[in-house]
Amino acid sequence: MFLYGVLDVFELNSTAEEPVCRQRGDPENPQLFKNGDIMLGGIFSFHTSWNDRQDTYRQKPLPLECTSLNFRDFQFAQAMLYAIEEINNSTELLPGISLGYKIYDACGSIARSVRVALALTNGNEVLSALSETPCTRPAQVQAIMGETSSSPCMAISTVIGPFHIPMISHFATCACLSDKTKYPSFLRTIPSDYYQSRALALLVKHFGWTWVGAIRTNDDYGNNGMATFTETAQKLGICLEYSVSFFRTDPPDKIQTIIEIIKASTSKVIVAFLSLMDIDLLIQEMSHHNLTGYQWVGSEGWIFDSQIAAMDRHHILDGAIGLSIPKAHVSGMRDFMLDVKLLNSSSNEMFPEFWETLFSCKFKQSKSSPGNQRECTGHEDLTGVQNSFTDMSLMPIFNNLYKGVYAVAHALHNILSCNKTCNNKMQLDPFTILQHIKKIQFKTKEGDEVYFNENGDPAAKYEIINWQPTEHGIVDFVTVGLYDASLPADKQLNLHNKSVIWAQNSQQVPLSVCSEKCPPGTRKVLQKGKPVCCYDCLRCAEGEISNITDSITCVRCHSEFWSNERRDACVKKVAEFLSYEEIMGALLTAASLFGTCITAVVAFIFFRYRKTPIVRANNSELSFLLLFSLTLCFLCSLTFIGRPSEWSCMLRHTAFGITFVLCISCVLGKTIVVLMAFKARLPGSNVMKFFGPTQQKLSVLGFTLIQVIICILWLTISPPFPFKNFKEFKDKIILECALGSAVGFWAVLGYIGLLAMLCFILAFLARKLPDNFNEAKFITFSMLIFCAVWITFIPAYVSSPGKFSVAVEIFAILASSFGLLFCIFIPKCYIILLKPEKNTKCNIMGKTAPKSF
Q1: pTM of the entire structure?
Q2: Whole-Å CA distances, 598 to 356, 595, 836
Q3: Torsion sign over Cα 21, 24, 29, 33
Q4: CATH fold of 193-324+460-505
Q5: E strands along 106-142, which residues?
Q6: Distance, CA of 379 to CA of 131 (rounded, Å)
Q7: The domain at 583-845 falls in which architecture?
Q8: Distance separating alpha carbons of residues 303 and 295, to the nearest angstrom
Q9: Fewer beta carbons within 10 Å, N or C terminal of the chain?
């Protein structure tokens, strides 16, 4: 059909008489026509379909047989006629100039739309060319109003664009038409779908729907609109479970496949970018399957059409929400449109069909009519008739047509320099008209401001409407919000405090998510092979938190903090150290004080009985010095208890090292005295003069001084310091004393161990000396206990966690101190207090057979 019938081509024949332009192909006559000084064109689909036929290339295709009368486009034509009549009757706009019109029926066919557009551009009559400019003349119409859909507008604008003939659409919303390189002469009085698609995505996001289905008309309107919606939705974190398309002429199995997809889906929200006829077909099919309970989000193509609501008898679309053109009112337009006799002109071949369909009757001359239809009289009254022609719910679209006609009129008014009269002799140029239309800015009589941006689009403003069923079974379109693309991004979507009725007459916002929101304390983990909206919620690991909903990561707490039980907040870690208040600290403190008291009692006993042989025989000065050092050993364990500080850390290790060396030095001195005393009893021996009281004191001082020097070097080079240990326990801070220099610490311990081993060896050698009371035996036992304690201390200290390592060290100090105290002094106290008869010089110096051990 396209090859033969779409293009109107004029053939130039050169004869001897006169060159003549003749049209090839059948002429196209307008369905509505009126002459005027300036002609406007109109293209509407008075029919929505045509009879299908199989054309071949062997014969010329017949004209389309249009079917399915469409009252909506009759309304659009009426709106255009009303604007023209109002302008013609105006004394202020285009005075003295009458506007005429040629309006064609495109029958919903893109090919026919292009054909009638060329007819509007070229005309149909045979032309005689002038000698100077053969076969050239101005365009037949100065502007074209229409078409209703985006795809026909794209085709028409592609053809007439190079001729710069303005085309103003009232309902073509595809964002692609804003491309002025492809469609230079296209303008529209309805906003671009670029804004509507983004607004729909913001609306879906506002209600928390992240898992939705999408259905679109398989044409430029649906495909481009849904593409923009999908792109914006992805940026907002919205996922499409499915995205399907269909066209009303698709075979039934295509619609059935879509029904099965909806049935199998888990999303409860359907975003529908559909035309009126496609949504009608879809809900009829869904009615057969009783598919209800879905929340519909609609585009302006169907959301505010009351006829769709009237046809939805199964209430499938109840609770739908979507965007519509702001409500409008044009005074006088309703009465004009309902005066159907204005359509009965001599050139209106469709009027009988229109009248018969409108009043459900049949004229006598009709060839085919059901026998049960009443006869038309031609005087039927429209009062009481309820159909899509009498429905004025599309008044915002009628207003768009009204504004489009007025835009052309204002441009012509400026071009013709109209004041009280217009310069009707000026030759009109479509390009000049187009440029003036792009620049016009005026207000209609209702106060609506009309202008076009650089893309030929108006300002993008929408009302958010909600389908709310009433008690009488009809749907009330309630405005629940506004969208204004001219405002800042955070203020574009504005919902009113009105109650919204959702699907199935619910008051609660429906939930449509692939996965529930992840609460604080968890993080999202995507499910393999599924969209980003499908995820699992994993609890944050220990020491990590998330304090927002749907967090994708867990944040690790600062080293001094730890996650709470819910993993939604970081709490300060408990600082752990061996304190006096806890049981273990209290017991160790008590043991330390008990040892100090026992040592003081022993010292008192020794002082009380200092003149007795057993005290005098065992070097009383070293004994008192030993008791003093033992007291310091018991007391130095207290420095290990309590919160570590800089001074306590330095004091505890150095005090421990020096007091123990002082203690061991005294024991070592006593052991040497025992050995020297035995050697002095041998004939000719005078060794005691080399190890008398002065030498004993100097040896103790010398041994202790070495330890003091080691401690001074340790404190000077790298002293111990308070340290917060975060590694030992995850949820606690261990307050401890870092060694600073490990060499210094082990040098202190090593020196103590060296003296202890030397003392043990010497005592062991002197254990069988022939004295009745041999102190070397008790020193050997004490050194054996001392060495055993400190040998076992090393692995226990290394393996003990936290404050228990401090407790182990205190225990080792107390155990070794008690070992020295009990082994060396308790036997003597026993004799002094309980066996005074043995506390004589003879008994002490007596010789008895030694006992082996």
Answers
A1: 0.66
A2: 126, 5, 21
A3: negative
A4: Rossmann fold (3.40.50)
A5: 127-128
A6: 53
A7: Up-down Bundle (1.20)
A8: 13
A9: C
